[in-house]
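Record type: monomer structure entry
Structure origin: computed from sequence
Chain ID: A
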Amino acid sequence: MSATKITYYSSTTIILLLMVIAGYYDASGNRAVIEYAKHLGYPSYFIEWIGWCKIIGVILFLIPKMPRLREWCYAGFSFELLSGLISHIVSKDAFWIVMMPVCHFSVNNSGRMR
């Protein structure tokens, strides 16, 4: 297996696992997640909706032989991560908290290859 494929599969696996875990915590209405979302200025129903979108996005991503759908999943994950970055910057969070969406975004985009 080539280094390019190893990079693709490992980064894709990491981002899908992160999205499933984050989606579960968001969709389940975890109290800590809801409180932190209030700190960012989001209502609780929005976070639950985003959680379900993450889970559905991962499921749709795993459908084989549909590259256009996979591209839209990458786009949705990228929009979500960039929005998280902006929310953390506007809320004046600590540097390490602001860098988490940046790291996830870079892993997400490292897997985008053909």
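Annotation 1: The two ends are 15 Å apart (CA to CA).
Annotation 2: The CA atoms of residues 5 and 113 lie 9 Å apart.
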